[in-house]
Design brief:
The chain contains five helices and three strands. It has helices spanning 9-27, 34-49, 89-104, 110-116, 122-137; strands spanning 57-61, 69-72, 77-81. A three-stranded mixed beta sheet has the order 1-3-2.
Length: 147
């Protein structure tokens, strides 16, 4: 996002928050429940991994505030942070694919990243998530976002 140099830091933060909110509102869909999330994981596995990634469970959790998702390959369980709810579908799909890939390759080596190359929105989703993290790190400005 390009921001005019004349903007103060407070204006910049307000503008970033407004644009992130607009983007999320435009691209987000209704929040999926756990069963719909599991169905989506199955669809993504079929589409991108020939159905080889088969989680035993996929669910939302509220105890992940520093990670977007996690996977326990030995159990086949995938957990996505509730913070993803309401984000654009392609972002949730990316995180699901990331965790599904861990069922096939536990680490983050070259083989793991090759699995994600087939998803055309990987870089866009990673950029979106990086933007969310960057916006959260901006200093708090009283009056921003209706405070």
């Amino acid at each position: 996002m390009l921001i005019p140099a004349r903007m103060s830091e407070a204006e910049e933060q307000r503008w970033v928050n407004v644009m992130l909110d607009k983007l999320a509102a435009q691209e987000s869909k209704q929040v999926l429940g756990d069963s719909e999330l599991a169905e989506r994981a199955e669809q993504l596995s079929a589409q991108y991994f020939d159905g080889r990634a088969r989680p035993s469970s996929v669910r939302w959790v509220t105890n992940q505030n520093t990670r977007w998702g996690s996977c326990t390959p030995a159990e086949g369980s995938i957990r996505l942070s509730h913070r993803l709810q309401g984000m654009p579908e392609y972002v949730v799909d990316y995180v699901l694919l990331h965790e599904l890939a861990h069922l096939l390759v536990p680490g983050h080596g070259p083989r793991f990243w090759r699995l994600l190359e087939g998803y055309p929105r990987t870089e866009r989703a990673k950029g979106y998530l990086e933007g969310v993290v960057a916006a959260e790190r901006l200093p708090h400005v009283p009056g921003a976002r209706g405070e």
